[in-house]
Amino acid sequence: MRILITGGTGFVGSHVCRQLMAAGHAVRLLVRDAEKAEAYYRALGEGIPELRVGDVTDVASVQAALQACDGVVHAAAATPMQMGSVEQLFAVNVGGVKNVVGSALDLGIKRIVCISSITAIFNRNASKINVDTPPAKSKLPYGQSKVEAEIYLRELQHQRAPITIVYPGGVIGPDDPGFSDSFKALKHRMENGFRIFGKGGIQYVDVRDLAAVVCSLVLSGGSGRILLPGVYTTWTALADTIEAVSGCRLQRIPAQGWKLRLVGRITDVVRLFKTVDSPISAETMRYATLWPDIKNSQELARRGLQLRSTRDTFSDAIAWMVKAGHVAPGLCPGVVPCD
Fold first, then answer.
1. Superfamily of domain 2-174+204-231+292-308
2. pLDDT tier at 232, thresholds 50, 70, 90
3. How far apart are CA 256 and CA 278, in angstroms?
4. 126-167 residue pLDDT tens
5. Domain boundaries, the chain
6. pTM of the model
7. Strand order in 71-74's β-sheet?
8. Distance between CA atoms of 100 and 103, rounded to whole angstroms?
9. C-beta neighbour count of 132 within 10 angstroms
10. Cβ atoms of residues 117 and 150 within 8 Å
11. Are 228 and 297 in contact (CB under 8 A)?
């Protein structure tokens, strides 16, 4: 089976690619820089996927890349800190979805998996979040871009289009070709202090587990929606876990959610005038301070898939950060150096 992956040099897409190739499937990536993509996969030593140069915002290159494919995984996405403008953010997160999914349907492809985000249906009340929860309007650009893409996909599902939507929470784990926002936030907390507020918490899904779910879905085909927020942990418990697996002694800073949300809004204003080297934004602080404990879809159990523990995920993630040079070894004396 030949599967096209968008975002195949990103965190989630690269893991999906590696798992599909390991299972013997042909994988094609739509990439902006073929040399960079080839160098990354060559260094892994696990095989090099077929590479097609293009961009999800360019419908012609998307259509060309989809030729002779049996399925597509749309993993390409943008975050506020990656894009230079709101217009660029929407061009990728909304226009890209329409180009990829619309073109796949035009070609008769019946295995389409789109990786969305819990933020598209976010509610601080966990009991109100399920696969039928309507898209939640957001006043913030990233959230609204995910909502607009969600509305488009659900309308196609209503028309019986073969599309499966996956809603992950925070994604982390080892082997990120770049340095995703979850890692930037983790690095910032380890180096600058870990803010602990009330009884709040967050959910992370290991990138390897998310990739396994996506691979299972694209190979089986069909239509549906899968909640995959991951394993819930309080911020205090997460700080304990990070210290236990890394040996890092975190500076724990008591904080209040409303103050962090205010700081996020102020930081966004400052970003309009200069570069700010911080993962803090109005959007990230909203989710960090208001996240409830959301249940994962029972579809995971039906497919025989299980999620790794927070300890295992962060142990491997931090070991990779040290190995890749993203954090100083001295900051994590508990991490055993690896080749």
1. NAD(P)-binding Rossmann-like Domain (3.40.50.720)
2. very high
3. 19
4. 999 999 999 888 777 877 898 899 999 999 999 999 999 999
5. 2-174+204-231+292-308
6. 0.93
7. 50-53, 26-31, 2-6, 71-74, 112-115, 163-168, 224-228
8. 5
9. 8
10. no
11. yes
